[in-house]
């Protein structure tokens, strides 16, 4: 194992009578009094069936020869697969990796492994999302979700580069490369970095074991989603590769357009620890200050994105299945207002994207 270079941040305030304790007590009472499970119900299991079908059914049709003589249909099937990948990630994999989909750990593990079918690696995602993003939301140097590797600027604490003046334009293309990077090189880069920081040890695994798993997963993934089309489709090889890229571009852009307006917004705060690696604040309040909801009344969008338009509720209660977010959001919003705390929520999805674009523009300098 690599030597640990990771130093956790401590939140100094934990007020027993404060917002965090109050909202947790009220949400717990909601589940108890209504005899509702915090994990998923029949609604999540419908998604477990439907969303993978949106990804895999077009692929099966393609292998059976549908669209082979019509490039518009051919690329349309890859496009639908991209919608399916994003839907799986947002609607079922996300809950499963948080242990929120089911009380059954095996069920969570199996559904979480769907990520491997999209070319990703579950353990890396859990470290990036569950450990770093949720624990250190919007903290530069800790939250990987606001670390675009120097090609964009997501935090006012990051250095300015001249080409950031154009990031409002090129960001959307780079967003589309999100799952493409997972499927190609990013898992290897993350694995080396997480090993160096000692984060693999916190997950009870080793560098060699995860490297072996990543290589094995990638071989299987490419054999299925690149190899089989090469074998069975009477289509030029470059169309297959371009179709595969279209699939990932659609998936990446969709995922980014859901996650980015939740944290990189004009209302978002970007706290930094002091010299002793402490943040003077309460963790629950910190989640309110760094997070934003959007389109709370859009039931169709909420279904597809796995309730992640209720990002505040998710960050306060990450082990609560998203099918409960809409109901508990009323409790969270009411409690936040009682404590004179912000409850940031954009009325529409388009409005949220517009505000995110404004934030990208403001961060150019």
Would you write up a description of this structure?
This protein has helices at 19-33, 42-63, 71-97, 105-112, 122-135, 167-175, 178-196, 207-232, 237-259, 283-290, 299-304, 311-316, 325-338, 349-362, and strands at residues 10-13, 278-282, 293-294, 345-346. The protein contains 14 helices and four strands. The chain is mainly alpha-helical and 365 residues long. 40% of the residues are buried. Helix 3 crosses helix 9, helix 6 crosses helix 9 and helix 8 (207-232) packs across helix 9 (237-259). It has one domain (10-362). The strands form two sheets. A two-stranded parallel ribbon has the order 1-2. Strands 3-4 form a two-stranded parallel sheet. 58% of the residues lie in helices and 4% in strands.
Q: Given the helix and strand composition, which structural class is it?
A: mainly alpha
Strand content: under 5%
What are the segments in which pLDDT stays under 50 over at least 5 consecutive residues?
Answer: none
Number of helices: 14
Shape: globular
Compute the average pLDDT: 94
Tell me the number of strands: 4
Cα-atom Rg, whole angstroms?
Answer: 21 Å
Helix % is: 55-70%
Strand arrangement across the biggest beta sheet: 1-2
How do the SSEs run, as a string of H and E? Answer: EHHHHHHHHHEHEHHHEH
């Amino acid at each position: 194992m690599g030597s640990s270079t990771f130093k956790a941040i401590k939140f100094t305030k934990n007020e027993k009578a404060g917002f965090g304790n109050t909202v947790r007590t009220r949400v717990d009472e909601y589940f108890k009094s209504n005899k509702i499970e915090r994990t998923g119900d029949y609604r999540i299991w419908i998604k477990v069936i439907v969303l993978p079908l949106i990804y895999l059914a077009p692929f099966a049709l393609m292998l059976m020869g549908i669209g082979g003589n019509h490039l518009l249909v051919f690329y349309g099937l890859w496009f639908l697969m991209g919608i399916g990948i994003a839907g799986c990630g947002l609607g079922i994999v996300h809950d499963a990796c948080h242990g929120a989909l089911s009380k059954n750990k095996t069920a969570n593990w199996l559904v979480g492994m769907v990520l491997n079918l999209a070319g990703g690696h579950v353990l890396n995602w859990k470290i990036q999302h569950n450990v770093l993003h949720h624990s250190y939301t919007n903290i530069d140097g800790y939250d990987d979700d606001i670390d675009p590797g120097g090609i964009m600027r997501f935090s006012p604490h990051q250095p300015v580069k001249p080409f950031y003046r154009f990031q409002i334009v090129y960001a959307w293309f780079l967003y589309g490369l999100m799952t493409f990077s997972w499927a190609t090189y990013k898992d290897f880069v993350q694995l080396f970095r997480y090993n160096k920081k000692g984060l693999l040890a916190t997950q009870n695994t080793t560098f060699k074991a995860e490297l072996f798993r990543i290589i094995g997963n990638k071989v299987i993934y490419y054999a299925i989603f690149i190899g089989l089309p090469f074998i069975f489709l009477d289509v030029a090889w470059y169309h297959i590769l371009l179709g595969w890229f279209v699939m990932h571009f659609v998936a990446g852009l969709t995922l980014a357009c859901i996650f980015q307006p939740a944290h990189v917004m004009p209302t978002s705060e970007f706290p930094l620890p002091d010299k002793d690696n402490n943040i003077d604040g309460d963790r629950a309040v910190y989640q309110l200050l760094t997070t934003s909801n959007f389109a709370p009344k859009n039931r169709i969008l909420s279904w597809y994105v796995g309730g992640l338009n209720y990002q505040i509720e998710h960050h306060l209660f990450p082990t609560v299945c998203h099918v409960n977010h809409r109901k508990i959001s009323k409790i969270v919003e009411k409690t936040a207002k009682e404590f004179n705390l912000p409850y940031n929520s954009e009325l529409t999805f388009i409005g949220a994207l517009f505000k995110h674009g404004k934030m990208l523009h403001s961060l150019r300098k």
